[in-house]
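Hi R.,

Here's the chain you asked about this morning:
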Amino acid sequence: MTHNFGLYLTLELGSHYGSPSDSWPAGSWPASTEHVIPFFTIVVNELGADRAAHWFIAAIEAHKHVVAADQARDYQFGFAAHLNTEIGDDRGPSLDRTAAWEAMKALYELVRRDAAADPEVFFTCALLASGRNGQTDEALVAAAASA
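And here is the predicted structure, written out as tokens:
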């Protein structure tokens, strides 16, 4: 079902960081890229493209909360707490949701530790990639990507 997601994500990241046809010149892509693509794929495989798109939108909003707290030097609840709030009732005790939840937390930590990477760019590219398979609500993807 989602076997093309990794390719679609790579293409979306390529449109932001440089084309794969440029033979991926050294230093043009953040180092975390190769490590996070499998985690994004886990999210899509476990939740399906449509639900994963909702989670990617929630992750963008959660990241904005983290950045705002960092900039204000305010108390920090952390990405996972904000993500949980943004996802709402969609995070239950099932194995698929647990796998997706852990993958989201892991990929966020990897991207945040990479000074060359922007988590919002990664989540936006994942959102756009999830919409490429034709099974995701295109209006949802378009609205979130343009926000």
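One quick note: DSSP finds seven helices and no strands in the chain.

Cheers,
M.
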